[in-house]
Amino acid sequence: MTASRWAGIFEELGWEVLEEPSWSGRPSDVLVALHARHSHDSIVRFTTARPDRPRIVAATGTDVYGDAPLSAEARDSFLRATRIVVLQPRAIERLPESARGRARVVHQSVIVPDRRPPKAEDAFQVCTMAHLRPVKDPLLPARAARLLPAASRVRVVHLGGLIDEALRADLECEQRENPRFRWLGELPRSEALDVLARSHLFVSSSRHEGGSNAVSEAIALGLPILATAIPGSSGLLGDDHPGLFPVGDARKLADLLHRAETDQEFLASLERHSAALAGLTDPALELESWRALLAEVAG
User: Fold this and answer.
1) What is the DSSP string of 242-297?
2) What pLDDT score was predicted for residue 168?
């Protein structure tokens, strides 16, 4: 999704764009590589073949956050990069010190429909969007919903494909035993945005995140947001965001879900926080960020 959006931006800026899973060796004026570790081979080959041409490396969440130290491949990619793109400012802190001066923040933009569907009326709908893999802790909202009072009308809807088969048994258990949980699988983007817009609240439960596109989509739609207190989320939402909770803490998340459902002022404060951040998701901002960055390196 990021690669396609950026390709469209580059074309709008007048560039001819070639999207490839790895650099094929075709002559290019600028290399934009998504993921420092996975693109390391392409970055090395491009640097060797065209040492005078700029290399822009996008640092992803798995590059700069995680349980393991920054990999040797990622460090070398950052060393070779003319500029490094991060999706929120806190990520700069995780780069090697020698690379931080070459980092630029490019916030992910979101185009949302002008017409919004009505909110779900049969439940207080809580949406979470992430492919099911451990780093996303995708079933935490479902487990938190189990802890809510019997009178709660919370319904957790999860959008995202099953990526890690190790989670299948837990997913099937939640589907079978948790009446407050619905897994909708992977939907086309327009349908996913419709489900998101119909929800009363969005939850990001990731253990690590570079800068969540789903959080940006929730911001663009003006949804109240609860998120794990990780740099990838606080870098977008701010350290003072009232809806942050500790990683993996189902009890704390349940408390926040209950408060959002029953305390209108708390829910409104979350809405105001999202509204104040809406400008970060403006496509014009992302376009201008790339215009300035490409002018820096290709001037």
Assistant:
1) TTEE-TT-HHHHHHHHHHHHH-HHHHHHHHHHHHHHGGGG-HHHHHHHHHHHHHHH
2) 94
Distance CA 214, CA 208 (A): 14
- Using pLDDT thresholds of 50, 70 and 90, give the confidence band for residue 281: very high
Q: Which tokens sit at 33?
A: 């590589």
**Coil, helix or strand for 137?**
coil
User: How many Å apart are CA 280 and CA 236, to the nearest integer?
Assistant: 9
pTM of the model: 0.89
Q: How far is CA 44 from CA 8, 26, 69, 99, 187, in A?
A: 26, 14, 21, 17, 36
User: What's the alpha-carbon Rg for the chain, to the nearest Å?
Assistant: 20
Least Cα distance to 13 among 35, 29, 26 occurs for 29
Q: Which whole number is the average pLDDT over 50-71?
A: 84
